[in-house]
Amino acid sequence: MPKTKLREDQHIEFKSSFTDAVIESLTAFANSRGGRVFVGVDDNGKPLKGFTLGNESLQKWVNEIKNKTQPSIIPDAEAIDFEGINVGVLSVKEFPVKPVSFKGRYYKRVNNANHQLTLTEIADLHLRSFNTSWDSYFNPDRTLDDLALEKVVKFIEKCNQGKETPLFDDPLTVLTKFELIRDMQVTNAGFLLFAKNDVFQAAIELGRFSTPTSIKDGVTVRSDLFSEVEEVLAFIRKHINKGYVITGDPQREERWQYPMPALREIVTNMVVHRDYMNSGDSSVKIFDDYIEFFNPGHLPDTITIEQLLADEYSSYSRNRKVAATFKEAQLIEKYGSGIRRIREAFGQYGLKAPKFENFQHGFRVVVYAEAATEIDRNSGKTSGKTSGKTSGKTSGKILAYIRENPDITIPELSQLLEITERSIERNISQLQKKKKLSRIGPAKGGYWEVIGD
Tell me: the pLDDT tens digits for 276-305? Predict the structure, then answer.
């Protein structure tokens, strides 16, 4: 066994004996990114002194797992010496065709726990296994009469702007080329993008609030996805402030309360990446000094908030056809640089960094009109007594959050404390020098330990 202490996480589970709970965990691992179950080990990672492993135990376990899972999974099984005690280890890799069920139920691994999949998650996981998405499938309730071909003409015009090889095809040919219709049948993406009438499945609730419970103005948009972007932005412009900056040029520079290119990026991401199989609505709530954007559908399990903020992820499109069509219209980038551009735009505008989070059954972005702190503006550079007092308070808060969650990441601390990641790193470095904080294990996969607790 490795010297580094093992802990339950996204790939490791401890069980004191072989029960159905072991099979549940293996199923969750198979539906995620693989993992190992140690049988004969308690929740603290200590081998059970009275545990014994029979000669045929491993084979019996494998047979039971095979018979109780669908499609059948056959784990690797081995007996290992764990601190002087013989325990069993059952290992599975990510299954190629998902999801795998156990007694008719489906699970996925999230951090160090198993979570039962919803019907929407089951469908999405299955589609991803075949490298496709929901929006690629036919909509049996829609025909070509439900599409507005004049909207396709406008789409072609957007595609041709600045291109050396423009499209000269008629609307139906273009829809066929982009696989938005096949054999004259309309796909879900084709309907969402070019619907003639209201699309109730794509409703977005817009509101201007004076308090969290008092609304001053509200509207619901149910247009095709291209139109929705413009309608949402028009509502935002109606309810935020606009000023002018004197630059010395004859023409004054217009300045909105928020950087509008960044808001366009957020709204576009909303309509492109929304979970349209979820019955909930998207919403935009405008307050005096902040805006909340909410969309049904969490981030994919393969992307964490930490990776999102660090720009260390590969772009994944829940709606592949919708995303590809928006890209052809030159409205989004393919490889997922939008979050970085949003954060940079707010930084250049001198505003506090936006907040990104999985929230309830979806994903939420909060943008703030308030100015960035001195630490934000100067990458953590302050001076004199203010710097010392701020650093002391920040260090105390960091230790408090780590006590509560030893697995917490620097980007997560940055969002909680609303200061830059560089400032978090500087405070952590000082805490480590003062021997108040220690890092156990590697940067990825390890955890924090507060010394003296």
Answer: 988 889 999 999 999 999 999 888 777 888
Distance CA 354, CA 357 (A): 10
In the block, residue with structure tokens 């220690």: 438
CATH of domain 12-129: 3.30.950.30
What lies within 8 Å, CB to CB, of 275 at 6+ separation is: 120, 124, 295, 296, 297, 318, 362
**Class of 378-450 per CATH?**
mainly alpha
Average pLDDT estimate for 18-32: 96
Q: Residue 291 is inside which H or E element, if any?
A: strand 290-296
Residue range 325-329: mean pLDDT, rounded: 94
What sections of 130-255 are H helices per DSSP?
Answer: 149-160, 171-177, 188-194, 225-239
Torsion of CA 425, 379, 417, 213, to 10 degrees: -150
Q: How much is the pTM?
A: 0.65
Q: Taking the domains of the chain in order of start, what are their residue ranges?
A: 12-129, 135-197, 201-372, 378-450
Q: Which fold has domain 201-372?
A: Heat Shock Protein 90 (3.30.565)
Task: Please report the DSSP string for 183-210 in residue order.
Answer: TTEEBHHHHHHHBSS--GGG-EEEEEEE
pLDDT at 114 over 70: yes
H or E stretch including 375?
helix 374-377
